[in-house]
Write a structure and sequence with these properties.
Blueprint lengths: L5 E4 L2 E5 L4 E5 L16 E4 L16 E3 L1 H6 L10 E4 L7 E3 L8 E2 L3 E6 L6 H8 L2 H9 L11 H5 L2 E4 L2 H40 L6
Parallel strand pairs: 4-8
Antiparallel strand pairs: 1-2, 2-10, 3-9, 4-5, 6-7, 6-9
């Protein structure tokens, strides 16, 4: 439920998102009507480019010209910004990396620019991806053919904010968990690639049981 700017809770404070970051909707589609698939220009991130790992998949990015990007400079991204899908697949997000600074984002995303003196960006990204928070957002999305969130609604989201040292501890523990998940996925991928070869060897009698 909506909260005031600050409410005390057991492990810190519950603070309305509006007090923790600046929320900016992407430029309207009409302002990005020169998007192209070529290699030149400034990338524009859209919802399909956001991965389950909270990163940006750069393989299919569309672009605008440098001059167009300059015209839309107020929508340029910075390192540690968070992009959140606001239309369609709600809740998907990415934490922007240094190499993606100056890129743009489209109208189906919201840019969250954390106030670094109050919250660690990686902590906020993890909070926003926490299942109860995701359900909160989905439950308050605007009804319609395509569910959506808006800046005003997101600004009222209550965020549990522990002290900075605890935020950092959360970030470090989750980073370790993520590294373990990636390692297990890589092992699974290797085993899946190896499985057909093992099967082939065994039916041809070249590999013992």
């Amino acid at each position: 439920m909506p909260v005031g700017d600050v409410v005390s809770v057991a492990h810190g404070e519950q603070i309305a998102l509006r007090s923790l970051c600046e929320v900016t909707a992407g430029p309207s589609g009409s302002r990005l009507d020169t998007l192209h698939d070529g290699p030149e220009g400034v990338p524009v991130i859209s919802p399909p480019d956001l991965t389950d790992d909270h990163t940006v998949d750069t393989r299919r990015l569309r672009r605008v010209s440098e001059s167009e990007a300059e015209r839309l400079s107020r929508f340029a991204l910075k390192e540690d910004d968070i992009l959140l899908v606001r239309q369609g697949t709600l809740g998907r997000l990415a934490l922007i990396e240094g190499g993606q600074a100056t890129w743009l984002y489209n109208s189906s995303c919201l840019r969250l620019r954390p106030r670094l003196e109050r919250i660690i960006p990686a902590y906020l990204a993890s909070y926003l991806s926490y299942p109860p928070v995701q359900r909160y957002l989905l439950g308050r999305s605007l009804p319609g053919t395509v569910p959506s969130l808006n800046s005003a609604m997101l600004n009222e989201l209550p965020v549990t904010v522990p002290p900075m040292n605890r935020q950092q501890a959360v970030v470090e523990v989750l980073a370790d968990v993520d590294a373990r998940i990636r390692s297990q996925r890589q092992l699974t991928d290797r085993l899946e690639a190896l499985r057909p070869a093992i099967f082939g060897e065994m039916i041809q009698g070249t590999r013992s049981a």
